[in-house]
Amino acid sequence: MNAQALKVVEVGWLDARETLTAVELSHACGLTAAELDELVEYGVLTPLPQRPSERVFSAECVVPLRTAGRLRHDFDLDLFAVAILLGYLNRIDELEREVKSLRAHLPGHPPHPHRGEGPEPWREPHG
């Protein structure tokens, strides 16, 4: 991946068809190469089978890894907890895509508006 593509990763515009080496993924996610290796051992991060001599990963794993890394830092989680969290984040993403696909097939139902990250904020009732 060239320097321009790494800038794209940094600002969040990411083409999921791109690939990253372990070093590039480490820089993009803020995890060390050893931590990435451990996540591979846990089975929550899978390198692409394209080049057996060098571990290459899909760019679509950057966002969940960044989220898991941020939560690790915020809540002082160990890497095993991060692995469990990453598995859940990937499963949630998969289920959200499936729901969107199913909604698209329902006749007469407009697409559900995206609420953003997390639950709706609580608002004080005015009355």
Low-confidence segments, given as residue ranges, are: 1-12
What is the CATH C level class, in words?
Mainly Alpha
**Helical region count?**
5
Counting helices, strands and paired strands, the structural category is mainly alpha
Question: How far apart are the termini?
Answer: 56 Å
How large a portion of the residues is in β-strands, by DSSP E? under 5%
What do we call the CATH topology?
A: Multidrug-efflux Transporter Regulator, Chain: A, Domain 2
Task: Give an account of the 3D structure.
There is one protein chain. This protein is about 55% helix and about 5% strand. The longest helix has 26 residues, at about 80-105. It has helices at about 5-10, 20-30, 35-40, 60-75, 80-105, and strands at about 20, 55-60. It has a single domain, classed as Multidrug-efflux Transporter Regulator, Chain: A, Domain 2. It has a two-stranded antiparallel sheet. It contains five helices and two strands. The chain has about 130 residues and is mainly alpha-helical. Mean pLDDT is about 80; it is low at about 1-10. The protein is globular, with a radius of gyration of 18 Å.
